[in-house]
Amino acid sequence: MEITIQSNDTYHIITLDGRVDAFQVPALRKHIENFANHANQNYIVDLSNVDFLDSAGMAVLVKLLKQARTQSGEVVLIWSQHQEANRILTLTRFDKVFNMADDMDGAINLLEG
Amino acid sequence: MTDLLPRLKTIKREFRRIALAWQAEGAEGVVLTSGDRVILSIPADLCIDHTSHSATLNIDGNAFNLHVVGESVSVPRVETDAYLLQKLLQREGELEALSDEFVNTQDQLLAFYNLTHSLRDQVELKDILRTLATEARHLTGAEHTFLIYVEDDTPPAVGLSGAGRMGLENYLDLHLQHDNAREYTFVEGDTGLLVPVRVHEARAATLGLLRKSGGFTMPDIKIADAIATQTGAYIENALLHQRQLQQTRIQTEMSLARRVQTSLLPPSPQTTDDMDVWGYSEPAFEVGGDFYDFDCDEDKGELDFVLGDVAGKGISAALLMAMTRTALRVMQNAPAQRLAQVNETLYDDLTNVDAFVTLFVARYNRNTHKLTYANAGHSPVIYCPIDGAARILEPDSPPVGVLPVSMAENHTMMLKRGDVLVIASDGLPEATSTDGKMLGYDHLMQLIELYRNRPAETLGRMLLRAAHSMNEIPGDDRTVIVLKRIE
After folding, report:
1. Which chain A residues have any C-beta within 8 angstroms of a chain B C-beta?
2. Residues of A in contact with B403 (CB under 8 A)
3. Closest by alpha carbon to B334, among B412, B392, B282, B394?
4. Which of B356, B394, B426 sits opposite A59 (nearest CB)?
5. DSSP structural state of residue B375
6. I need a labelling partner for B330 at 20 to 30 A (CA). Which of A4, A34, B91, B427 fits?
7. Taking all residues of chain B, what is their mean pLDDT, rounded to a whole number?
8. Where are the alpha helices (DSSP H) in B159-198?
């Protein structure tokens, strides 16, 4: 898994790549904990290139969501291009919990709108 | 000169033979002197006068004179005899040196044997270091010896021997003073010697020999080096033993935890007159985060059942699993209300450890054949009617612990005779082969349709076997319960 982070005044963009599973999440969790005291608590998590996402990966995204919402922030997930990765989002109804966007423009609209 | 005296005594016999030979030819006798001192004389008290002839012997830088007293003495023969005695004494000296070396080697071998013997039954690192430090002191004659083993994350282990013990920081300081590029380092004005000890090919310990009068010689360094090599091997053994002990302890505890967790699952089968029920759970490790539970209320004719999957694996998931199971057991109302209460009870705890639990909670009424269920993010739940295609009963709410308030609602459906309900954890459809192929939801539904006429246990085992055939080692916990209306 590769993690790329870009930040501006309004939101942070976390781009993930490859597998997001139990073996990869410690690195992602560290990034999320580093954001904990940040004034800006709006996030876009780009899952476009994630080909596998399991419950451990989902647990870290839920952590980010809880962290953001306790500080009136929001998290938008961009759907993956891989159906395997999207399955956990739909099967477990996480798509009802997170704001979901088809692409980056859609995600930015959701946050700025 | 003093050292030569014992050696000189050994040539008495040869000296006597020389003297007798000279006397037989008319000489008065023979005297061996060193300066003014008479060493040997035959006959005793023979005076060296003008008639004597002398020749010089040199032994280890000391000069001796052989005098033959008498008329008509052949000077070359005196010189030959002196040369003979000189050679004898030299050979005797060489023999002594060899004997000394032999005795020393024997002593060292014996000491190493004792060392090996005394360490044979020792496995505690500190005891080993102390024994080796003591033997190093005995073998080298240092006043104080120490062995320090420094490993990351744990306090250093030290073994000491002899007087003049210091604080731990001093030994650590000496450990750091050794130059790793060198085979040994002299410290404290050459009265101290540090030899590195290698553990698993990395320098991790130091043997220190301190305060030896006269300093350390090459044999001391060789002995210290031999002990250091042996120390490295003993430390490796002790560490291996420690690791094995720790592993055994963990394995014992994990086996116990597994037994405890298995005892939390209801015995299978739970078949009643009208419902064929079977359940099974296998964790990816010793313990896991999956669980299922049945509770039958004979008076009301109700069968409550649940299946849960804690995000994550191993001990942490197992603890959360036990917690969730307990929270569920104390609530006896309808499925969605149970889910709402469990979510309320566990939300904070699950948030604190970044976890969530997918939960399927259901109640089957045996009188009305009505199934009521609520699903918090759990999948797969597959309903396969006797006369139709299998389909997934999708959740309407995210897992427990994700949102502060549960969104799950009660759903109802009637079960006909022969209808099958399969609830599994995601480890079943997500069983993956080494080339990355997943068992998949579609294949799982096909299998259920194919075997829906079989008893619940046969069908359940078929599904688990299909997952097993995908890969040797389960990557996730796998749980399945099968309910089939038979009346």
Report:
1. 22, 29, 54-56, 58-60, 62-63, 65-66, 84, 88, 91-94, 96-97
2. 97
3. B412
4. B356
5. E
6. B427
7. 87
8. 168-177
